[in-house]
């Protein structure tokens, strides 16, 4: 069996920026062990798979070690493949996911994803969080991840976290964030628990960051910058209980996967 796979740099204007994701369009689901094995072989922060359904596609995301409930950059990458490579003609594509229906709208080169808003709440910082970051934040919040608020962009950029310690935390990962010099806010994201020491650009983290910074800055449209080594820009817009995350993507690689026929399943992929 031969499968097409595309590697896409998401939240990027050119290759070698943003967050690379593998995207594998399928006609029906492979078994979960094979999906996870391909993701592990890719060794990218996310591999996305989708199959056609009645009004769009069923989309799933895998890190090198586990399937996840929500991923922004791999959704952006999947939408890029649907529109730019598969020639999808509608302006909006809908994905059925573990986190509900996600619509992505194409406007020129910009792809706008409709995600749930996940407002974080204040919490006491766990000792492992402080030890793992090596610097005490001025404020700590929690939602799907711990959110560590720092005074400045320089504080966030200077962090040298201990992945072994952060990987023992109970939540998915850790977001470090601060006001930006050339953006409304900046961030970095660490998820060693899921096999990702540092994610280059994390769309799902902005579902938590956007409501916090919107309330703090008094604005509903925010320009965000994830200040990882590769870096990437995320445009965030708050709309009631939703966050519209927008960015661009570029294709880096077109590949072919060769696997045995015995891995096919007739299941629904859930």
Which consecutive residue ranges, at least 5 long each, have pLDDT under 50?
none
Number of strands: 18
What is the oligomeric state here?
Answer: single chain
Mean pLDDT: 94
Coarse shape:
globular
Main pleated sheet: 18 strands, mixed
| Percent helix | 10-25%
Percentage beta strand: 35-45%
Report the end-to-end length measured between terminal Cα atoms: 22 Å
SS content category? alpha+beta
Helices, strands, pairings?
Blueprint: E1 2-10, E2 19-25, H1 32-42, E3 47-53, E4 56-62, E5 67-68, H2 72-85, E6 92-97, E7 100-107, E8 110-116, E9 121-122, H3 127-133, E10 139-142, E11 146-149, H4 153-157, H5 163-166, E12 174-179, E13 185-191, E14 196-199, H6 206-217, E15 221-226, E16 232-239, E17 242-247, E18 249-258
Parallel strand pairs: 2-3, 4-6, 11-12, 13-15
Antiparallel strand pairs: 1-2, 1-18, 3-4, 4-5, 6-7, 7-8, 8-17, 9-10, 10-11, 12-13, 13-14, 15-16, 16-17
């Amino acid at each position: 069996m031969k499968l097409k796979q595309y590697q896409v740099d998401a939240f990027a204007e050119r290759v070698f920026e943003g967050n690379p994701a593998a995207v594998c369009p399928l006609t029906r689901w492979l078994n979960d062990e094979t999906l996870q094995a391909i993701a592990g072989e890719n060794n990218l922060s996310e591999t996305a798979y989708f199959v056609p359904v009645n009004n769009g596609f069923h989309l799933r995301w895998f890190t090198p070690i586990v399937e996840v409930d929500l991923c922004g950059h791999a959704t952006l990458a999947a939408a890029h493949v649907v529109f730019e490579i598969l020639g999808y003609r509608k302006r909006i594509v809908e994905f059925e996911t573990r986190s509900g229906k996600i619509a992505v709208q194409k406007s020129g080169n910009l792809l706008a994803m409709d995600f749930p808003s996940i407002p974080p709440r204040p919490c006491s910082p766990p000792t492992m969080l402080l030890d793992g970051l090596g610097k005490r934040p001025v404020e700590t919040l929690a939602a799907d991840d711990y959110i560590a608020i720092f005074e400045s962009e320089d504080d966030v950029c200077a962090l040298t976290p201990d992945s072994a310690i952060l990987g023992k935390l109970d939540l998915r990962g850790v977001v470090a964030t601060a006001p930006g010099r050339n953006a409304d806010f900046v961030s970095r994201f660490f998820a060693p628990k899921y096999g990702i020491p540092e994610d280059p650009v994390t769309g799902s983290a902005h579902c938590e960051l956007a409501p916090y910074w919107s309330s703090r800055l008094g604005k509903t449209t925010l320009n965000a910058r994830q200040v990882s080594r590769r870096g990437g820009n995320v445009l965030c817009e708050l709309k009631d209980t939703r966050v519209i995350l927008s960015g661009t993507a570029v294709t880096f690689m077109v590949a072919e996967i060769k696997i045995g026929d015995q891995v096919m399943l007739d299941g629904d992929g859930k």
